[in-house]
Design brief:
The chain is built from five helices and eight strands. With 142 residues, it is α+β, with helices and mostly antiparallel strands. Strands 1-7-8-4-3-5 form a six-stranded antiparallel β-sheet. It has a two-stranded antiparallel sheet with strand order 2-6. It holds the Pfam family MraZ.
Length: 142
């Protein structure tokens, strides 16, 4: 399970270091294979390849009226590998789409990660904290 947030830097070639606490697990369990795609809030989704393949089945089974969701998720999916130095190259199309330049935040979301521009992430967290828990959570308590 992935959790926590990690401020990171993208180098001039578009590479990002995977935090050591995740890197070893990702190298051992999935051979360092990841899939990047867009999310619908302006960041990126980062899946270990086996998790992406499960999600891919769900996406493929979406009804025809959700073709735009399929197009966004699948049309922007890129497979990448963690290199020997523990870095991944974030595809330039995705860096541009998510406006990732230098300072980013990798957020553990359980079975995958979100990747955000650090300023955008801080804005989202501030809004979430101010709003409190959504009514949709019903009886959920912390």
């Amino acid at each position: 399970m992935f959790q926590g947030n990690h401020p990171l830097t993208i180098d001039v070639k578009g590479r990002m270091m995977i935090p050591a606490r995740y890197r070893d697990v990702l190298l051992e369990e999935v051979g360092g294979q990841l899939t990047f795609t867009c999310n619908f809030d302006g960041g990126l989704l980062v899946y270990p390849r086996p998790q992406w393949e499960l999600k891919l089945e769900e996406i493929m089974n979406l009804p025809a009226n959700l073709a735009s969701v399929k197009r966004t998720l699948l049309g922007n999916a890129f497979d990448v590998d963690i290199d020997k130095a523990g870095r991944v190259l974030i595809p330039s199309q995705l860096r541009e789409r998510a406006k990732l330049e230098k300072e980013v935040v990798l957020v553990g979301m359980g079975r995958h990660f979100d990747l955000w521009d650090s300023q955008k992430y801080e804005e989202l967290v501030s809004i979430d904290l101010e709003a409190g828990l959504p009514d949709d959570l019903g009886d959920f308590s912390l």
